Sequence to fold (112 residues):
Amino acid sequence: QVQLVESGGALVQPGGSLKLSCVASGITFRLYSMAWYRQAPGKERELVASITSVGTTTYADSAKGRFTISRDNAKNTIYLQMNSLKSEDTAVYYCRAGLADWGQGTQVTVSS
Fold:
């Protein structure tokens, strides 16, 4: 059914910025809420940010003020703009459509 392909992960220095992308297929994208999750080694997967079909956003406390989720329905894509990155942001970041399975993820490493 749904296919989600994340990209944009990289090694970045503390304080730096990164923009992740997720392209979805197999769904009527504009009708779905979308979200970014992340999972660090030894930690549970956690919700980072979400965006509804009409553009309402929600953020984890750790992401507020630093991360911005957005969507482009014409491109079936969501984005996660990450600024002021910290070592604690190091994780594999996953995209999700509604309550479906996550994508394969993209690695973000924040280190000096």
Remarks:
- The chain is about 0% helix and 50% strand.
- The chain has a mean pLDDT of 97.
